[in-house]
Every structure is written in C-alpha cells, then in structure tokens.
Amino acid sequence: MLPYGRPSLDESDAAAVAAAVRSEWLTSGPTVRRFEAELGAYVGGAGCVSVSSGTAALHTAYAAAGLRPGDEVITTPLTFVATAATAALHGARVVFADVEDATGNLDPAATQAAVTARTRVVTAVDYAGHPAEYQQLRKVAADAGALLIDDAAHAIGSTYHGAPVGTLADLTTFSFFPTKNLTTGEGGAVTGTDPDLLDRVRRFASHGMVRDPDRLRHPDEGGWHQEVHSFGLNYRLSDVLCALGLSQLARLPHFKARRARIAARYRELLADVPGLRLPEQRPWVDPVWHLYPVRVLDGRRREVYDRMRAAGIGVQVNYLPVYRHPVFADLGYRPGMCPVAEAYYAEELSLPIYPDLTDADQDRVIDALQTILR
Ligand SMILES: *Cc1c(COP(=O)(O)O)cnc(C)c1O
Q1: Is the confidence at residue 5, as pLDDT, over 90?
Q2: pTM of the predicted model, to two decimals?
Q3: Residue 227: in which H helix or E strand, if any?
Q4: CA of 360 to the centre of ligand 1 (A)
Q5: CATH architecture of the domain with residue range 252-373
C-alpha cells in the first residue's frame, strides 16, 4: 500500500544517530541544546524547547499560558484531537470556532464571535501546512486578552507574509512524528519569543524544577540543591533523538522543495478531473505541504476512499471534527456546531505526499483518481 505520508530517512540520519549513541550523552546533553538553537534559528530567531511529542508540546504550551479550570480555549475542530484534548486535561472548556472554507483553517471572524470574558487562549492549526490568518488572529486574541498558540504540527518550514511559522503566535508547537515534515521518531518542540513564557515551558517539561541560584527559595542548602516551584512532567527529548532532528533539519529545505513539486504536479495533473476540488493557496503563504487535501464532491468521498484503498493507494481522511469524538459528545458537544468544518470533513481526502514519492507512484495516484471520477 502506498502510504499517504512517510518519513525520508537516509544514511546521514543513521550516521547522526549512531554518533549520538557512541557519545557520552543519551539525554539532555549538548545535542539537545544544538537542536534547540538550530531549530529556533530556522524558525526566525525564536527561543526553542524540545519535548517528547507534539501532544507534549501542546500540553506544555497550555501550562505555560496558565490555563486553569473554567478558562476557555477557542480552537478549530479540523485538527487532530490532541489540540483540544491537552487543553481539556488542564480543566479548560474547549470552544470550537468554525473554519474557512478555502483553507480549512480557523476563521478569524468565527473566533471573534466565540470570545467571552473567560477566553484565555486561542489555538490555530496550520492545516495541511498552510498557515492560518495570523494578522487577524493576533488582533482577535490581543483584544480578548488571550494568548495565541499556533499548533504547527503540519507546518514546520512554512512562511506567512515572508515570516516563518514559529514566531507568528505567542507560542508555536511542533510535532516530529514520522508522518510530519521532519521527524525524530517521536518528538516535538515549543518556540516563542517571550523569555518568561519559554521559561515556564521549559519548567513544565522538566518536573517544574528550578536550578537557577538566583531563583532558589533556599539558596544555602548546598550545591546539590534544586527545587520544584510548580508541578510539571518529564517531557524531555533525548540527545539521541535530537541528533536525528538536527540531521533532518539540515534536509528540511530539500523536503520542502520535494513537497512543493509534488503539490504542483497534483495541481497541474488533477486540474480537469470532474468532481474534485483542489486545495487553495493564499498568495502570501509559502507552505510546506504536509497533506495534500482534495475535496471529493457529489457525496462520493466514501466511495473514492474505498476504491483508492482497494487499488493499493493509502489515502487518508483528516479530520473528523474533534467535537464528534465520543469524549466530547459525552460532554454535551453536538454534531453540526461548525457547519463549514463538517462540510470540509465530509468531502476531504488526503492524497499521498512525501519527499520520496516518485513521479511514477504519483502518476498511479492520479490515474486511479481519474478512473474513479471520470
Ligand atoms: C500530529 C499532530 C499533533 C500531535 O503530535 P504527536 O507528536 O503525534 O503527539 C497535534 N496536532 C496536530 C494538528 C497534529 O497533526
């Protein structure tokens, strides 16, 4: 089965991991610091904290935002469940605002309409790698007195009005799961430019531990002394996995170019297929296409999904609107609350896109779709 996504790993990645295994460090050593420095520089001079997954990154970002029971987080339903689940785990109420039909991204007007006195965080997702509308979202969040988080699990390497994803919101979270644009096996990161926020990120991801002598409550305890000032978790990423991350980061420009070429070929070769709508790209964004989300019209998505799979082409559907998961339904969320996201979901089909996808394999995808829809 041709997958819809797969990591690109080569001998340089293997050598980087082998070197890390042979070094003195397995976890929290110099390679973690180098990966964080290079990733922060890559996304436009942000501070960066590496963590053990994209889910850990979100959970940590919400902790740094000071999210508490009773607070509200406005987010998109067209995302992986972790965007919302990690806010709910802090006791927050998740408020789903609808998406834009063109991009599937959080709609700034719908976000504005969902603001209440309890809104503490707005979380956008750069669906498929296409950045959300940060100029408007920043204003909505600022007017609400809320923090803006960018769940950029799909979008490392993308830019918006020339600025890289990673500095567009107060905090940005990344995932390095194998299907994403860059992988460390499991892994993630949080980036931002506010040192206080980043300090809270780093603390939550490592037990809430304080080591800085200037901040210790009991500085005379002895050289071994460290203190916990707030509860946290162990969400650290290891030196071994950061070595893979560094190696992958060096190849990210190549991954971006490959994904752009594959997207351009789909755009050209699927342009005349009836009953198909191709993803739109706003002129001010330069996305790294993590997904290639087409829309299958005329109620045929299920049929096309089944027939593509039967033809050995591993298409995917991204995503069931999050509030339709039973865990949210049990909390009283009802289907239909975000009609644009529902319509998007009903038609969406993610076609294979990854750096090592060959033209011949892509032609198979295109031929199969044409045969079914012709
Ligand atoms: C993959 C993903 C996550 C979770 O990342 P993990 O590394 O799998 O924990 C969160 N949000 C979105 C939008 C994702 O695609």
Answers
A1: yes
A2: 0.98
A3: strand 227-228
A4: 30
A5: Alpha-Beta Complex (3.90)
